Amino acid sequence: MKEALRATKDMGKMLGGEEEKDPDAEKKEEERQEALRQQEEERKAKYAKMEAERESMRQGIRDKYGLKKKEEREAEAQAAMEQAAEGSLTRPKKAVPAGCGDEEEEDEGIMDTVMKYLPGPLQDMFNKK
Known about the structure:
The protein is an all-alpha fold. It is 72% helix and 0% strand. The chain is built from 5 helices and no strands. It has helices at residues 2-14, 25-65, 70-84, 103-117, 120-128. The longest helix has 41 residues, at 25-65. The chain is elongated, with a radius of gyration of 40 Å.
C-alpha cells in the first residue's frame, strides 16, 4: 500500500506536480558548496606543490649546466640594448638585410660584372653612353 502511495507521488512529480520541499535542502546545498570549495583549494595546493618541485628540479639542472632562465636572458638582452642606446637620442637602428638599401651600387656592380664578359667593341659602345 505504501509503495502504491509512493508511486502516485512520483507520478505527480513527473506530471508537473509540486515537489516536497526538504527543510534541510538549503543547509545541504551550503555544505555541498563548501565541500566543493575545499576540494578546489586542495587541488590547487597539490598542483602548486608539484610545480614548486618541478621548478626546483629545473633550477638544479640550470645550475648543473650553467644555463639561465629565459626571463633572465631576455632581461640581459634588453639591458644590453638599453646600454648600447644610452646617450643616443634615437632608437637603435636595425640591420639592413642584403639586397635592400643602396640599389644604385648594386646596379653598377651588376653592370661592371656584365661588362667584363662583353667583347671589347661592345664595351666601348656601352661606355660611350
